[in-house]
Amino acid sequence: MGIFSKSLDQAQAAVTKAESVVQEWEGKAAAAREEAARLDAESGAMILADESAAERVTLNIQAHERRARAFDGAASEARQKLHQAQREALEVEAREEDKLAATDRKNAATHAAKVQDLKRQLEDLDGCEWARADAPDITTGRPSGHQQIGKSGSLEHTAHRHETRAAVIRYFLATGNVAHDFYLLDNELGTSLNTIALSFGQGDYIPKSVYAARSAGLNFAGAGA
């Protein structure tokens, strides 16, 4: 299955599977190294008891050490695959955010057109202009002087949130840093998120996955797509 056909759940499942493979190889390497160390610690007594056992004991220790190195190599390769799976999961999540934003934009436009049509009918019926009432002040409950945004405005707001979250993910993939500014994202990614009405402190703009990736020390900057 190609990366572009993966769902977010499938991408995250691939990460979980890759993590288990890494843990398996690391566990085998540790076990082989521990066994080599145990044999080495007991080798003196074994050789004293039977000098002819020296070569056999040495070969046995070397065999375990060789297995440990082989398992180390497999673990290293598995970690590279895990890193790629982690990158793909973030990429899939960004595309999911894009899809959600596109859906919200479409629904906002559809709803706005319906409202505009009904508004024209109401104005024809009543013979005067109609407009949305002011939004109440959250503290006093009085009109704030700012017109209510309505359902279409709310959908536009959530679309902006999804677009920003997608941009934050892509910025992290490109730089290894967590963005906290719309202008930074626009300048670095060529997006059009600039707004003087919103700040990062006013919305859930940074996905938990980005914080988790940073906490895990992941860095994809400079890596191929």
Question: What key phrases describe this protein's structure?
Answer:
225 residues, mainly alpha, 70% helix, rod-shaped
Beta content = under 5%
Portion of residues within helices: 55-70%
Number of helices: 5
| Terminal Cα span | 17 Å
Secondary-structure-derived class: mainly alpha
Number of DSSP-assigned strands: 2
C-alpha geometry: rod-shaped
Q: Largest sheet at a glance? A: 2 strands, antiparallel
What's the helix and strand layout?
Blueprint: H1 8-49, H2 54-126, E1 134-136, E2 143-147, H3 150-175, H4 182-189, H5 208-215
Antiparallel strand pairs: 1-2
Descriptive notes:
With 225 residues, this protein is mainly alpha-helical. The chain has 5 helices and 2 strands, in the order H-H-E-E-H-H-H. The chain has helices spanning 8-49, 54-126, 150-175, 182-189, 208-215, and strands at 134-136, 143-147. Strand 1 and strand 2 (143-147) form a beta hairpin. Helix 1 (8-49) packs antiparallel against helix 2 and helix 3 (150-175) crosses helix 4 (182-189).
Provide a compact summary of the structure.
This protein is mainly alpha-helical. The chain has helices at residues 8-49, 54-126, 150-175, 182-189, 208-215, and strands at 134-136, 143-147.
